[in-house]
Amino acid sequence: MGKIDYSAPGPFTSLGEAAGSVVAADPLEICEPVHALFLHPDEQPGKDMPAERQVEKNVRPAGALARLLLALDPAPLTEARVAEKRVVGTCRHFAVMSCALLRDRGVAARVRCGFGMYFEVGLGMDHWVTEFWAGGRWVRVDTEIFGQERGVDPRDLKPGEFLTGGEAWSAYRRGEVDGAKFGVPGTENWGPSEIRGNVVRDLAALNNVETLPWDEWGRMAEAYEGKTGADYDELLDEVAVVCAGDDLDAVAALYQHPDLRVPDELIR
């Protein structure tokens, strides 16, 4: 599968001491419990979440997330938790843990950063999902919404139901979507710059570096402030094409660009 190995743990997808805890073989069965491992920061499990626990959403490695989960409840990671025993996290945490559990069983899997098109009609919501290789194709799953009614099958998302950063960017550049309708729910962060950010984050994820949703590097901060120009947009055009082509040698090569590669200080 080229220079990038999706069947082995990456910097953020090693389960550490929890490795080997997965016994299921079917990818969907492996993913099943993940929807009940995390809790969004604005969700309350029946009582106020202690303020000090909000920092859990900033944890990057799956191994550290696994330790937090086991400290709250020593049951195997394959078992769902009640709300009070879940780790505070975002959609990125669901996707990363799913990827880590799949790789723990040797299943080729990867995380994708982009936009869910099934949360609000006509809006692209900032979101992360997981893909695993089966039947000669990448099966795209949203483990966060397993068991929810969203009008989609989260166990096999159809084309267009989730757009990666690159897919959304290409559609925007072709004039097929309104960039103003893409952004982060509950914030003022909407517009083409939000798509620009997720183009770069998705490239990093394809290189096994699944950053936090708010991590910024290279020229991303300038892009969010509207201070980048045509040259940066043309670079993102290239990123979108390379990511869509799924030529892993090209994906790995483009990631070496100084404006695109995640700095070492964020990989910890």
Automatic annotation (TrEMBL):
Positions of the Transglutaminase-like domain: 86-143
Gene3D superfamilies: 3.10.620.30
Pfam families listed in its UniProt record: Transglut_core
InterPro entries, per database record: Papain-like_cys_pep_sf, Transglutaminase-like
Name used for this protein in its record: Transglutaminase-like domain-containing protein
